[in-house]
Model the fold of this input.
Amino acid sequence: MARTAIVTGGTRGIGEAISLMLKADGVTVAANYGGDDAKAAAFTERTGIAAYKWDVSDPEACAAGVGKVRDELGEVDIVVNNAGITRDSTILKQSYEQWKAVIDTNLGGCFNMVKATFPGMRERRWGRVVNIGSINGQAGQYGQVNYAAAKSGIHGFTKALAQEGAKFGVTVNAIAPGYIDTDMVAAVPDDVLEKIVARIPVGRLGQASEIARGVCFLCAEDAGFITGSTLSINGGQHMY
Ligand code: CAA
Done:
């Protein structure tokens, strides 16, 4: 059966890889983005995947964006909550704005997108929600109280919503990526990143496609018995 998915933050980095792999699996994909129109247009040109702009931290924008996708591509069966930002800094230097931006986007975005899509999935008795958490939500990370709190929140959100979706055929799972070769990780200072990579047993950063592989696995038609789980894809850095 043909399915429609929204991937938030779906035009770059891990999100781009997820959008592409879902499309290759026969899913109709809407890639949400929050920033650069020119980059999003280039993404659509390159991939043939429609891009939709809205801010996931804004509940009304999410409702309107999902409505537009529904009108243009059909009912939304799959949501991948991937959009995320970092505002790294130690607690002494972290401002309330840095705290709030990360919580509102990374965790608030999951709530806003689920509010806009879960009722329809429940009604149609089929749905897949995949939330992108993080190794740093599982283990913590120096300089990331905001990010670790939001990502840890995503793991709790996943387990709670999984219980609400289970009897309606809606599965809710999380992926906890480790350090993946994207712009976000490239922003970590070189000397700090070197030490982090030295602690990854596989001996390298992950690839975005290695996270996309996990998302497609969880979104499959025959993945209906997998719910409330967290799939860690981190090169063995944290065995949780
Ligand atoms: N553990 C213990 N101490 C640490 C530390 C660590 N991991 N990292 C830094 N420190 C110490 C330093 O040794 C230094 O100590 P001294 O003052 O005694 O020398 C002190 O903390 C200050 O360190 P910095 O000079 O680095 O401080 P800063 O204010 O310039 O920067 C920081 C702090 C912004 C947190 C910076 O260290 C940093 O960017 N760290 C990387 C954070 C990180 O890993 N972010 C992940 C981004 S990718 C992502 O989030 C994706 C995902 O899901 C995995």
